[in-house]
Structure formats: structure tokens, C-alpha cells
Amino acid sequence: MTTKLLLDAGNSRIKAALLSSEYQLEPLFNYSYEELEAHPFVLPNNITETLLASVASQTNEAKIRAWLTEAMPIHHVSSETRAFGVTNSYQSPQNLGVDRWLAMIGAYTERQENTLIIDAGTAITVDWLAADGAHLGGWIVPGVSLMQESIVARAPRVFNDLDSAFGRVNELGNSTPDALLNGCANAFVGLVKQALSVSETELDWFDYRIIYLGGSLPLLPAELKRRGESRTDMVLQGLAKYATQAS
Ligand SMILES: Nc1ncnc2c1ncn2[C@@H]1O[C@H](COP(=O)(O)OP(=O)(O)O)[C@@H](O)[C@H]1O
Ligand SMILES: CC(C)(COP(=O)(O)O)[C@@H](O)C(=O)NCCC(=O)O
Ligand SMILES: [K+]
């Protein structure tokens, strides 16, 4: 049985899945690039093709190529003007991050309805996809870790001695690290609420689908999460759609 390897290469982490000839998606791993280098995942030997969707740096893409030592063809997927019923709103469609493009393809393949997609990773992206497949536009915001790091880098009195910690939603801070971490966690939640508000007040969406993905999802409070679906596989689902037409 032949299998395709699907790779979603973000700026912090790489996610991999296998797609069987029956189009079953089987998640493989979600690694940082350091983990991929230190403990290269041993792939099954029946892979016939690799589909790569990357927004990563050249340095991190080189780590992927170093891992994929097998001489298997790599098909780079990019954002397009239109595909699988979804129309890109960018004047320069190639500029839209392919992770954003694929999450929309994945969502639209499942259900053709008004959809808000929030991908909270290195950056937080918000995209509005209408029921007719039109991408209406979106936002790019620094991700929670980036928010934390950027102020520590620029304001000498703002420090964070809590290693790889994240803040608490709806809580105040009474120390610099707590004020920083709680502030950034709450900024993320505020962004999500603003995206919902714009959907309802500006676009007149009432009954719409909300899809969340990305590493920062654990920060979202339960009442907000309940309003949507946590779908960290959505970029890989979009890639699977491309894999069904790739040679
Ligand atoms: N336990 C956690 N709680 C909250 N946020 C986290 C946690 N672990 C990682 N993150 C956040 O997730 C981000 C990575 O998410 P991911 O979606 O994999 O990013 P990318 O697609 O950009 O590679 C990190 O930058 C960090 O902000
Ligand atoms: C906005 C992003 C950096 C998000 O990347 P991620 O957080 O998933 O690593 C990525 O989608 C990207 O590089 N986009 C290109 C610019 C654009 O979408 O307009
Ligand atoms: K993202």
C-alpha cells in the first residue's frame, strides 16, 4: 500500500501526517525543529511522495531536507488564486501564508458555510471564509510567545524569569513576569473576542463555524472554546486535499 507524507512546516514547529491510498490521515508527530534534528523520525518505507506546505525559514527548511534523506520527490504546495472552491482575497495570492490557505481549503472541503479560522502559533492569524468560498480577508498578529519576547527585548525593566511559561486568562499580575504573561494571554483572548465581534457586527454572521488551531489553544477559556472546534489538523486536511490531485 502506498502512502504520502504530508508536512505542515510552521515557524516554530513541524507537523507530519501520513495519507494512505484510501485517503485516511494518520498524524505522525508535532516537533520543534530542534527535536527533528536531534531525534529524526524514522519514516515507513512505502512513502511515494512528500507534500510540503512551508512558511518556515530557509534554515528550518534545510533541517527538513536534511531529515528527508530518501530520494523521494517533494511537492511544494503554495497559495493560489482559486482552488477547491476557495477564492483567495489577496491581490498577490502567493503572498497569503500557505498554512492559512490550506486551513481554509480543509475547512471548506468539510462544510461550505461562513467560517472564522483562528490559528494561534508563532503568529496568530484570523481568516474569514464565506459560505460561497470567498476568502474575505484576515489579520496577522504576533503570537503569545512573540508578544512576550518582543517586550522583554525592547523594555529593559520588563523581565520574564519563568521559563517557557504562559499566563492565565481573567487574572491580574502582581509581579513583572505575571503582569507580562497574564497580559499577553489576555491579549490573545481579546483578539479572539474581537474577531467574533467583527464577524457578528461587521459581516452580519450569526450562525457560523469557528475553527481554532495552533499551539496556543490551551490558553483559550472553555466558554470560548465551546463556541468553536479545536482542529489542529486543519492545515494537514487542506494538504490532504491537494494530495488527492497530486501525481
Ligand atoms: N503549553 C502551551 N500553552 C500555551 N501556548 C503554547 C504552549 N506550547 C506552545 N505554545 C505556543 O504555541 C506556539 C507554537 O504553535 P504552533 O501552532 O506549532 O506554531 P507554528 O505553526 O508557528 O510553528 C508557540 O510559539 C507558543 O506560543
Ligand atoms: C502569518 C504567518 C507568519 C503565520 O505563520 P505561523 O504562525 O503558522 O508559523 C504565515 O502564514 C506567513 O508567513 N504568511 C505570509 C504573509 C501573509 O499571510 O500575508
Ligand atoms: K499561525
TrEMBL record:
Its EC number is 2.7.1.33. GO terms for cellular component: cytoplasm. K(+) binds at D119. Its cofactor is NH4(+); K(+). CDD domains: ASKHA_NBD_PanK-III. The keyword Aminoacyl-tRNA synthetase does not apply. A monovalent cation. Ammonium or potassium. Keywords: ATP-binding, Coenzyme A biosynthesis, Cytoplasm, Kinase, Metal-binding, Nucleotide-binding, Potassium, Transferase. It holds the Pfam family Pan_kinase. It catalyses: (R)-pantothenate + ATP = (R)-4'-phosphopantothenate + ADP + H(+). The keyword Metal-binding applies. One of its GO terms (biological process) is coenzyme A biosynthetic process. The active site is at D99 (proton acceptor). Pathway: Cofactor biosynthesis; coenzyme A biosynthesis; CoA from (R)-pantothenate: step 1/5. It is found in: Cytoplasm. One of its GO terms (molecular function) is ATP binding. It comes from the Bacteria. ATP binds at D8, A9, G10, N11, S12, R13, I14, K15, T122. Substrate binds at Y90, G97, V98, D99, R100, T176. Homodimer. Belongs to the type III pantothenate kinase family. Catalyzes the phosphorylation of pantothenate (Pan), the first step in CoA biosynthesis. This is Type III pantothenate kinase. It comes from Pseudidiomarina taiwanensis.
